[in-house]
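Notebook p. 47: complex prediction with LMY7XDAE.
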Amino acid sequence: MTARIIDGNALSAQVRGEIAGRAAALTARGVQPCLAVILVGGDPASAVYVRNKVAGCEKAGIRSLRFDYPESATQDEVMARLAELNADPAVHGILVQLPLPKHLDETAVLEAIDIKKDVDGFHAENVGRLSQGREAFIPCTPHGVMKMLESTGTPVQGAEAVVIGRSNIVGKPMAMLLTNAGATVTVCHSKTKDLAFHTRRADILVAAIGKPRFVTGDMVKPGATVIDVGINRLQDGPDAGKLCGDVDFESAKAVAGAITPVPGGVGPMTITMLLENTVISAERAARACGK
Ligand SMILES: Nc1nc2c(c(=O)[nH]1)N[C@@H](CN(C=O)c1ccc(C(=O)N[C@@H](CCC(=O)O)C(=O)O)cc1)CN2
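Predicted complex, structure tokens below:
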């Protein structure tokens, strides 16, 4: 068997077309969706992601505001900017690119974002609402994964789903979304004993551990849908400098029913769902002011 490749770029292009239509309709009613992006420090990968977010906004007809701070930025400076953006009715979405420099209090920064503008869905109140299955901003990467599962027709209800990784950004919200959708979910992590025992039972396997090519074909159930959230740059060997995921694509592809590549899989969907969350926030704001 060789797996169907789930093309994140193609799905993104389709969904971004729909988002652009909704943004245009809002703009015609006098409410142009607007996303504010805060980047602190000089992490090269973060700079690429922020650039792609801003470019994605522009293409979709979403206004963007970008605030770059040096590595030495203080907590007070970032908090003051967030207060200003929270109070600005023309701003519908606010995000702080992660990771932040170590001297900043990430939790305090994320909690300072108005939950109505928290398009990353990282505020504790949005996390709590998601865990209760209530309306909430859904973190972009796991939301993108759910869209990818839907696009492939992968049945989620009643499926055995295994999530490897328990981060606040991906693993935990991913497990909540799959649970809310009716899957039986197992969350595995660095302390899990006999990881392969769990992964081999998974109809849906989501890898988000940050270890290059960690999940190999012998750990995959035949016919499973494998979603690779990892983005690792290989340091040495013949592929040095190349990007790869947490899944060993070649061996897993031979066993899985469907699989996401890296690059071109989940990554593009992360930015797409951010654009969608921004438009959702603007739609809510427009409704609230009768437009
Ligand atoms: N505030 C946030 N910070 C971070 C998030 C997030 O959702 N919100 N997620 C990640 C980084 N991230 C978005 O910010 C992100 C990662 C990867 C991609 C992507 O499109 N990857 C491409 C490859 C890009 C490359 O060449 O390096 C792919 O997989 O095809 C988009 C967004 C951590 N921080």
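Notes: The chain has two domains: 30-117, 140-267. The longest strand covers residues 34-40.
Next step: compare against the earlier run before touching the bench.
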